[in-house]
């Protein structure tokens, strides 16, 4: 605490009742970095130890660093701590991420609904003989778990996730890892599906920006008892993008090796580094191999099939590094401005009246200290909110915006109230396209004159709008239909 020593090692015995935080009354007020070397069997003891460095009257909060090996059974301990930290945040500050501070991914919590559902499916696949890591008879013999009814079939009283994890720890390390790879493939498949559907609860996300300006502020509801208000706020947000630096990429990946393949998109000219990603396990036991494409500003997982059908192709290391540096400089050159809509204030009474397929709670924090917290509202949902709450000053997206909104959200959107056309996002040949449905076949020439194009897919004519020109083409179609 006085700064005479740089490292402190303490155990449960040396941690009870002691304070090791960056106390404002002590000489050493530097940020603590707390490594959790041995989580132990009891999560509450680990949480108690973490509390030694995160206390009141501190100059800064510590950085928590749980340490684990590549023995997958150790996820048993980290998982429970992740759950307890998030629960601690909910109890103490009213938000789940207060305790965990976004330290863990959804996959880290093996006691979530996704993990429990995946375990049920894992037992069924094990019983059906569709897993590669082990057989049903071998697993039962090694773990001593009773999984089968006397008259055949899986028992209804399957082990809990905690009991299953404890038994996994008794297996040889290679078998532990093989079982966990398949199990986590099932977990991640469920989380990916929830993320794509917009239903993954990620709790509170803090987004740091340069500054934001309030454009409009509409009253949605006033509570009749307390007078508390619910408001719809539209903000103009400006922030600098922070692309991944090439130096960091080189430190973490051996570019040009089979594990890190440099690629370029033949259509857009953008580059990405293809690295291995965890394979998914479908509910029928089918294995879905994937690669992760790392890009300067964002990354995404691709199945091998989708990647082979896309415009991505391998390139040389020299060309890749040159293109990556150019994208990096371009991305960081100037700030970007975007419009964000937040429902703020008293949200619980109106939560179910807001569009439910995009649940994301965000706190915007500006460099000048301003902050605002609320549930995000998409542009394409503004019209529905205006109708629900009787707002007159809120308009839906314009025809120029529809293309970008549909591509970003994946949600089909009508072109105009008087127009039967619907704009939807479709995956064709490994790329996302904007497709028009509800068109009149006898007007195909008219649509083509406006800039659209057709393609016959499985003996059916489909109508598409070029993504790069959607903002110019869609308004003309909306007015002239």
Explain this structure:
With 481 residues, the chain is of the alpha+beta class. Among the domains are: 68-198, no CATH class; 246-333, no CATH class; 397-481, no CATH class. 32% of the residues lie in helices and 26% in strands. It has 15 helices and 18 strands. The protein has helices at residues 12-15, 43-50, 75-93, 97-100, 113-127, 136-143, 161-168, 173-197, 246-252, 304-308, 317-333, 382-389, 399-409, 444-449, 470-480, and strands at residues 33-36, 63-66, 204-209, 211-222, 229-239, 261-265, 271-281, 287-294, 299-303, 312-314, 336-345, 361-366, 371-377, 413-416, 419-428, 431-437, 453-457, 460-465. A 6-stranded mixed sheet has the order 3-12-13-11-5-4, with no helix packed on it. Strands 9-8-7-6-10 form a 5-stranded antiparallel sheet. β12 (361-366) and β13 (371-377) form a beta hairpin. The longest helix is centred in the middle third of the chain and has 25 residues, at 173-197. The chain is globular and about 80 Å long. It starts with 11 loop residues before the first helix and ends with a helix. Residues 89-103 have low confidence and may be disordered.
State the oligomer: single chain
The radius of gyration computed from the alpha-carbon positions, rounded to a whole number of angstroms, is 27 Å
Low-confidence stretches: 89-103
Number of helices: 15
Q: How many beta strands in the DSSP annotation?
A: 18
Let me know the largest β-sheet: 6 strands, mixed
Helical proportion, percent range: 25-40%
Strand order of the largest sheet: 3-12-13-11-5-4
The overall pLDDT, averaged over residues, is 83
Overall shape: globular
Overall structural class, as computed from helix and strand content, comes to alpha+beta
Strand content: 25-35%
Termini separation: 74 Å
